[in-house]
Amino acid sequence: MIEANNPNLTSWLEVPSEHDFPIQNLPFGIFSTSSLSPRVGVAIGNYIIDLSALNESGLLTSLPFIQSDFTSSVLNSIINHGKSATSSLRNRLSELLNSNSSELRDSISLREKCIIDMSSATMHMPINVGDYTDCYSSEDHARNVGKMFRDPENALLPNWKHMPVAYHGRASSIVVSGTPVRRPHGQLKPSDNEPPIYGPSRLLDFELEMAFITYPGKPLGSPIPTSEADDYIFGMVLFNDWSARDIQKWEYIPLGPFLGKNFASSISPWIVTLDALEPYRVSGPTQDPKVLPYLEYQGDAHYNIDLEVEITTAGGDSKVVCRSNFKHMYWNMRQQLAHHTVNGCNIRGGDMIASGTISGPEVGSFGSMLEISWKGTKPLAMPDGTERRFINDGDTVTMRGSQTTDSKVRIGFGEVSGKLLPA
Ligand code: CA
Fold first, then answer.
1. If you measure from the C-alpha of residue 366 to the centroid of ligand 1, how many angstroms do you get, rounded to a whole number?
2. What pLDDT sits at residue 1?
3. Which terminus of the chain has fewer CB atoms gathered within 10 Å of its CB, N or C?
4. Which residues are designated catalytic?
């Protein structure tokens, strides 16, 4: 077991019970305050540890980092040090914050310098995302879409169970939680018998996803096998892949998603490390037919993370519209990364690979309005008496994710939230 994951650890900093960020989590993010420029922080309870202040004070000197890694306004330079460096950084932070450790606890001046009240901080986009790829790895989601738009008897396309299908997305429009998203304009074809029109999307949707962030990979031409994939994954975030269904429907043949997707995707600000997620591993579904050898993997490579999506109307009424779980994925992250690189495609530190919409098997666990309203045919009643087929202007979509182990350690991702503005 990674010592920083020990369920018996407690911190001298107060962490409310059921909090997403106990000492066993220690997620990384970029924060600023009225007096501090954006820099690297780690969350514990309702506090942020300012790593630049910690390093300046000589408390991180045994590690392979330099001060500019911590004063950077993105996490890329930390991540580019690789897994053993970031793991030892998290372990060192766990040591310093442990109830038994006095180095930081007993120095009022160090505490004043290094510990920030989270309520006084603004969170920023944590990564300069180099490349972004979106997968399509939930069988229930792929089946639902296949049933709606193709043949209910043959909902999955012939390739689906042989490879984790994906497309290359747009990195520049990935934004941090809290950033409003504007309803996009584009080409629509509302009637089969009429020519296309230009106008605001009428079918604006969310997609409940998670995404992982990579360490620097291997040189161009060298695949990453499933057995090594975990060493190339820094951590994960919640990911809302905003989607304009009407733009998507008209444009996607034959080259796939484009303007229906690339106007915005939102992520949660705190990156939960793969190390911290270790206790939440579970086995995946039986894959039948048997996958090709390069997609085979050993052990538990799926993660038990409860997920939910809430819609809040402009008037402030909220409703949870989906409860799903990341363990429902058919293809896991090891397989996604092995497939992504099997042709020699190289990944870089700070690339982002999203899961695709995470739907569960039952009604109530579908991860998009497209599925929840079944293409608009089953409107959803909201608490204020209105109905939703898709997302209305002024609605805020919030996604959360967390899990509790048998030893009662709960870790979570905080939330990703975004308000839809009118076109
Ligand atoms: Ca997607």
1. 13
2. 86
3. N
4. 141
